[in-house]
UniProtKB/TrEMBL annotation:
Gene that this polypeptide is encoded by: serC
GO biological process, one term: bioluminescence
A Pfam family this chain is assigned to: LuxC
Keyword tags: Aminotransferase, NADP, Transferase
InterPro entries: CoA_reduct_LuxC
GO molecular function annotations of the record: acyl-CoA dehydrogenase activity; O-phospho-L-serine:2-oxoglutarate aminotransferase activity
Annotated protein name in UniProt: Phosphoserine transaminase
Length: 347
């Protein structure tokens, strides 16, 4: 099974290299290549949130992650007993390309069958990649099923990810099943005033990759009381491609107008707004910031609000921190909401 996903990782690395360095794919993957290019083109046309730059980040992340040694190290932490295979319904979100792939990986590597309900925003990538997976391992054909209507399906376990409204619906509807539910989270960064230019550039990647729509995107920054937020804006050029996304720029123009009309204080460049705010969940095109005076007190505040936070981006601040520029490159053992999906499935 691990060999199958190692092969998929090789394919994604080759696709990334083709786009980035104009390198041709090996013969092993040529049969899939032209079809995959058409899928990529179709995705960028049908869903303007998914730019080619974002898709390449996704391919890069999974290409680097799906390697034999990493998969073996991850799986070596678990003991799998011979239990009856479960049917696991996985309801996937669509805010970020392939955002539900980690759940898919957990179910298959745990030896279970998966029933997948895709979001309309991201319903092309995984079905195509499953063709490659089944080509490499035909035995998986009967373990993977896509559905458009969960009410017609029979299942034993449920993994569902959505926003705070759908969370309440999931909680009620799946109350009789073993269920792993996830709702909206955001990520925060803590600056201490000693960050390098490179770290501030990487912070902007953490803020704006995927148009800032993911739970691993930094939506709020804690800064020292005498910090100049323009230092952050000056390093945002790395994400300027985001202006090609009219949906993102519409959000930017909307909040710029609202804040201006209501005389709300904010800082800006031509594609991102920084607003001083106590709340954690910022809208698209806006990143909140908050001043702090005491790091120890800030640690306490962040830990008290940990149920709102997916990642904490910092350097030498907390033990479980994420390095600058790494929010979209989680390790296999970095589970969403810090809930071990493998343990849940093997319960």
């Amino acid at each position: 099974m691990i060999k199958t996903f190692d092969k998929l990782g090789s394919f994604l690395r080759e696709v990334k290299n083709f786009y980035s360095y104009d390198k041709y794919l090996s013969k092993h993957y040529k049969k899939f290549f032209s079809s995959f290019l058409k899928i990529i083109q179709r995705i960028t046309i049908e869903n303007n949130w998914f730019r080619i730059e974002d898709l390449l980040i996704t391919f890069d992340q999974w290409g680097k992650t799906l390697k034999k040694e990493k998969l073996e190290f991850w799986m070596s932490k678990y003991s799998f007993t011979k239990k009856k295979s479960k049917k696991v319904l996985v309801i996937m979100p669509g805010n970020v390309p392939m955002v539900g792939f980690h759940d898919f990986l957990c179910v298959i590597l745990s030896g279970h069958k998966i029933i997948i309900k895709l979001s309309e925003e991201d319903n092309l990538l995984l079905p195509f990649l499953c063709k490659i997976i089944i080509h490499e391992n035909p035995m998986l054909k009967n373990k993977i099923k896509f559905t458009n209507n969960i009410f017609y399906e029979k299942f034993d376990y449920v993994i569902a990810t959505g926003n705070n409204n759908t969370f309440r619906y999931f909680e009620y509807y799946f109350r009789k099943y073993p269920v792993l539910l996830r709702k909206s989270r955001t990520s925060v960064a803590v600056l201490q005033g000693r960050e390098t230019e490179e770290e501030l550039i990487l912070l902007n990647k953490d803020m704006l990759t995927y148009s800032g729509r993911g739970c691993r995107n930094v939506g709020k920054i804690f800064i020292p009381h005498d910090y100049n937020v323009h230092w952050i804006l000056k390093k945002s050029f790395i994400s300027e491609y985001i202006t090609k996304n009219y949906k993102y720029t519409d959000n930017y123009k909307y909040y710029l107008s609202i804040y201006t009309i209501n005389k709300v204080s904010f800082q800006k460049n031509h594609f991102v707004l920084l607003k001083e705010e106590k709340n954690y969940h910022s809208p698209i095109s806006v990143v909140y910031y908050e001043f702090y005076n005491n790091l120890n007190q800030l640690k306490k505040v962040i830990l008290e609000n940990s149920n709102e936070i997916q990642c904490i981006v910092s350097k030498n601040f907390l033990e479980k921190e994420t390095l600058f520029g790494k929010t979209q490159y989680p390790k296999l053992e970095n589970y969403a909401d810090e809930i071990d999906t493998i343990q849940f499935l093997n319960g």
